[in-house]
Amino acid sequence: MNVRAQVSMMFHLDKCIGCHTCSLACKNIWTDREGTEYMWWNNVETKPGTGYPTRWEDQDKYRGGWQKNGNGSVHLRATDKLRGFTNIFHQPYLPTIDDYYEPWTYRYGDLFDAPAGDDQPTARAISLITGAPIDIEAGPIWDDDMGGSNIYAANDPDFSELTEPEKQAFFEMERMVFFYLPRICNHCLNPGCVAACPSGALYKRGEDGIVLVNQNVCRAWRYCVSACPYKKVYYNWKSGKSEKCILCYPSLESGQAPACFHSCVGRIRYLGVVLYDADLIEETAAAPDDELVQRQREMILDPFDPAVIAQAKKDGVHHSVIESAQKSPVYRFVKEWQLALPLHPEFRTLPMLFYIPPLLPVLARMEDGDTYNVDATDYFGSLDKARIPIKYMANLFTGGNESHLVETFEKLLTVRMFKRSGEVGDVSLEKVEEMMTATGLTAEACEEIYRLTSLPTFDERFVIPPMHREYATELMGDPYTFKAETGFGFRGKPVRGL
Predict the structure, then answer these.
(1) What global pTM score does this model have?
(2) What are the structural domains of the chain?
C-alpha cells in the first residue's frame, strides 16, 4: 500500500442552474490575456449536446485517454514512442479552431466615429486572432439550452448505443429535457496529459495531486492536448505554451476555495481531500469497463482505518491532511454513500472530479386535467420512465454499467422519499423503510445526505487541507530524476507515451 493524498471535487448536477457564474469567475481571473481568448478552464455544457470543444467525447476523432491492450496493460491512444517521434511536428488529432470557436470582439469605433446619417451604425464583429471581420458561427455556450434539438443533441456521442425510439424521445418538443454539466480539469490519478508530454512539462504535485504545466519547460509539442480525453489542456497561440486549470492552488494554499467553487450560485460544488493507494493505479486503469467505477472506489482508502493512517504517515502524508480527509465531503459522497460517479471512466485516466447524476424520473402524472397524482406503489419503477434513458446516463458516468447508475438513482430516490414522507406526508413510512432496506441506507444516512446536499455550511462543502510544501520533494521522489517518473503513481518505472 502506497498512500497518497489527492484534492478531489464533487459536483451535484441536480443543483446546477446553468448560470455560468463559475465560468466567468475563472475567465476573469485566469484567461483574460491575449492568446487565451478561447480557453474556458471551467465551462458549463448542456446535455444532451456536443459540448466544448465540439464532440470532445468522441475518442475515435480525438484519440484521447488510455486504451486497454490485449495483455491487460494500457497505452495512450494519441501517441507512443514510435508515433511520437514520427509525428512530433504534426498533431493529427488536435481540435481545430472550428472545434472550439474563433474568439471575437466588436469594432466599436464604427459606432462612435460613424458620420451622421439616416441609417443606424453597427459594430462589425472582428476576430481576436486575426483582426479581420468574421461571421460568428459558434461560441463557448453555443448549444446552451438546446438539449433535445436535432442540431446538437442528435450529434451527442453518448447516443451511440441508444435505440432509435430512445433518440427520438429527445426530439419531441413537448418532452424536451436537458441538464447542465459543468467541467473543469479532473486532476486525474493517471493523467494522459502528463504521460504524453515529451518535455516532461506536465507534472502532478506530490502534496495535493494537482496537475500543473511548467511553463519554462513546455515546448509546445501539444501532445498534452491530444492525450487529454476531456480536452481541458489548451494551447496559447500567443506565448506558444500549454495552459490548463490549476485548481486555483494559490487560493487553496491560503485556505480559500477555488474561484469557480466560491462563486457557484447553486452551491453544487464540494471539495475535499481523499487518501488513495497509488500501488493500485495501473491495475485499476486496466480493469474492464464495467468494473472501473467500483475499482476506482476501492482505491480510495478509509481515513479512519488505523492501518491506513499508519501507512499514510509512513509515506509522508501529514497528520493534518489525514484529519482533513476524515472530514471530506467528497469521501462521503464517493466512498461512504457511493452516490457520486466519475465522468467517462472508460477513458482510464481515473478522474478525481465526481458527479452526482441528475435525478430525472417521471414520478407523477396529471389526471382529469387538474389532479397531480403520485405513484405510491413502485417508486423505483419510475427509473424505467426516466426522461433521459438510463443507458445514456450510464454511457456518461459509469462506462456503460447501468447497474451502478441504477443503484445511485435508487439511493437518491430513497433520500427524496424519506424527506417527502416527513415533510409532505404523502409517502408512507413503511414504503420508505422498504426502500431503505433495498438500498442499504438508514434514516440517519438519509438525513445526513439531505443535510450535506441542501443545508451545508461553507466549511462543510469545502474542507481544504493545509498545504505542506516542505513535504513536496519527499512525496515526489528524487527531484533530479522526476522527469523520468511521471507514469503510474509517483515512484517506480513509468508507463509513458514518450
Answers:
(1) 0.90
(2) 1-88+143-356+462-492 (3.30.70.20), 361-460 (no CATH)
